[in-house]
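Backbone-to-sequence.
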């Protein structure tokens, strides 16, 4: 066995090939990703700060929203900063432990987010379709258990994916044609078919599809209830909040389904690489816009926080 293959089997280093090797485009990619990352960072940190400081927002909806912001911060932070650094420094390596960490935390956070989005759709369903029973169904204990179950499902799924992905020796050039250690690309490096990981991927897709169906059913009931509302303004408010949420969830899950189900080409095209952006970068950036800037309570809480800060400085 060659020295290169020995090194690859021991997993010392992988090469993240990214989007291009053209220096000018690498710099442009780094600047674009930096702007997106800062926007996601600011938006999610604001949500965490406001929902923590403002006691009026200590409700089930904002409890889940705070959890979602933590997830989004982690999800975008495990992939984008490394990609930005590599592009700026024209340095595309990642250590074996770094790659393992990306796979583990990506699946942990992504699976938890899918589960939490499902819980959030159920919360909205109960609030709109069964408002009189809302306090009893969505009690503090129930909310904590649902959030904990979401985090637990993410952790278990991450352990299964990480263990099975790196259980098979890899052969050939350690080039990962992606801007982060994505499992489909890692599987293409395996010396033999990784049956265990294919089984785990299948189970994950079943779980994600089940969550997607549950979310869709919840929104069907929500929209049918909203359409019977006498207030046109009330209907518009619910639709303006729920529709963008549903669009981002659909984009998040459908792009993930496509990436993990379609046959991986030997030389991934730019479109194949861009699809990964829709399940790694877009949701953490868009969720704060959907849940804060379009939300009256969040706007009031932000204004109150800003006024308090001004009074403290004066």
């Amino acid at each position: 066995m060659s020295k290169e293959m020995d090194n690859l089997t021991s997993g010392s280093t992988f090469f993240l090939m990214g989007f291009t090797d053209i220096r000018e485009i690498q710099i442009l990619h780094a600047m674009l990703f930096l702007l997106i990352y800062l926007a996601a960072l600011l938006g999610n940190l604001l949500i965490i700060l406001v929902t923590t400081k403002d006691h009026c927002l200590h409700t089930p909806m904002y409890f889940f929203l705070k959890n979602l912001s933590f997830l989004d911060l982690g999800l975008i932070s495990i992939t984008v900063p490394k990609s930005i650094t590599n592009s700026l420094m024209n340095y595309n390596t990642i250590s074996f432990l770094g790659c393992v960490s990306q796979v583990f935390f990506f699946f942990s956070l992504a699976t938890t987010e899918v589960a939490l989005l499902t819980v959030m759709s159920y919360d909205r369903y109960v609030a709109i379709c069964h408002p009189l029973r809302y306090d009893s169904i969505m009690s503090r204990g129930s909310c904590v258990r649902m959030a904990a179950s979401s985090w637990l499902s993410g952790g278990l799924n991450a352990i299964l994916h990480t263990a099975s992905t790196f259980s098979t020796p890899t052969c050939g050039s350690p080039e990962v044609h992606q801007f982060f250690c994505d499992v489909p690309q890692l599987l293409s490096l395996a010396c033999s078919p990784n049956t265990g990981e294919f089984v785990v991927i299948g189970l994950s897709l079943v779980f994600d599809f089940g969550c997607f169906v549950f979310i869709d059913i919840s929104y069907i009931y929500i929209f049918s209830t909203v359409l019977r509302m006498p207030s046109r303004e009330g209907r518009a408010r619910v639709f303006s909040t729920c529709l963008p949420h549903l669009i981002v969830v659909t984009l998040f899950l459908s792009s993930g389904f496509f990436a993990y189900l379609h046959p991986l080409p030997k030389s991934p095209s730019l479109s194949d690489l861009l699809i990964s952006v829709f399940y790694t970068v877009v949701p953490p950036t868009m969720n704060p816009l959907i849940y804060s800037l379009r939300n009256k309570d969040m706007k009031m809480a932000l204004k109150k926080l800003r006024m308090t800060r001004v009074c403290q400085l004066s």
